[in-house]
Amino acid sequence: MIGKISGRIDYRSTDHVLIDVRGVGYLVYVSDRTLASLPGPGEAAALYTELIVREDLLQLFGFPTLLEKEWHRLLMTVQGVGAKAALAILGALGAEGTARAIALGDARAVQAAPGVGPKIAQRVVLELKSKAPGVMALGGRMSVVAENDDVVEPAPLAPRRAAPKATPATNRAAFTADALSALTNLGYQPGDAAQAVAQIAAETPEADTATLIRLSLKLLAPRN
């Protein structure tokens, strides 16, 4: 199983890239969002990958983070959602947006993906809503962007690699995961907690963990 590709981009198409890994070219399908984030031909790139096996076809699909790869796998478990439809949903919403839409039951957001109709969108929300909290709880650890570790030219002394810098998306995923964990530890049902955290994260994108917990508790508090 090919789980990660690190190399140089040979060319970029509208829905895939060709990555040269020490002389072997791998054609990797990616979403519009991922394609826009990749560098140009000749530049180094790395993607986590999923190998899809069909009767007469092998296809590699690439993702910048393990979180996005996990959502792609889950989306494909829904009847009627193939690998490219799942990629279209992630391209339209991203991993965080997909989690938020499913947790909130927002089928219209899922339907915004090209080629996804209302019936499929509703099915995605219904079938994956119970699984959203578990994936959201892993968000912080799975949101680190894949690093390119392909050595092209030898160097006398390789510098020590610094730890990956946290990006805003990584921070948001970590805040969401921590808030969700805290709420479930307080006794709230995972589905209710996920829905509350997703709603607050959508309304207050700059919220940190403490803010997410405080506002989610207000949302979850029983009304008199």
Give a quick summary of the entry:
This protein is α+β, with helices and mostly antiparallel strands and 224 residues long. Among the domains are: 4-63, OB fold (Dihydrolipoamide Acetyltransferase, E2P), CATH 2.40.50; 66-130, DNA polymerase, domain 1, CATH 1.10.150.20.
Task: Give structural notes.
- The protein has 224 residues and is α+β, with helices and mostly antiparallel strands.
- Among the domains are: 4-63, Beta Barrel (OB fold (Dihydrolipoamide Acetyltransferase, E2P)); 66-130, DNA polymerase, domain 1.
- It is built from ten helices and five strands, in the order E-E-E-H-E-E-H-H-H-H-H-H-H-H-H.
- Strands 1-2-3-5-4 form a five-stranded mixed β-barrel.
- Residues 151-164 have low confidence and may be disordered.
List keywords for this structure.
224 residues; alpha+beta; DNA polymerase, domain 1; 5-stranded mixed β-barrel; 10 helices; globular
Q: Helix and strand layout, with pairings?
A:
Layout lengths: L3 E9 L3 E6 L2 E6 L2 H6 L6 E10 L4 E6 L2 H10 L7 H22 L2 H5 L6 H11 L3 H6 L1 H4 L25 H18 L4 H14 L5 H12 L4
Helix pairs in contact: 2-3, 3-5, 3-9, 8-9, 8-10, 9-10
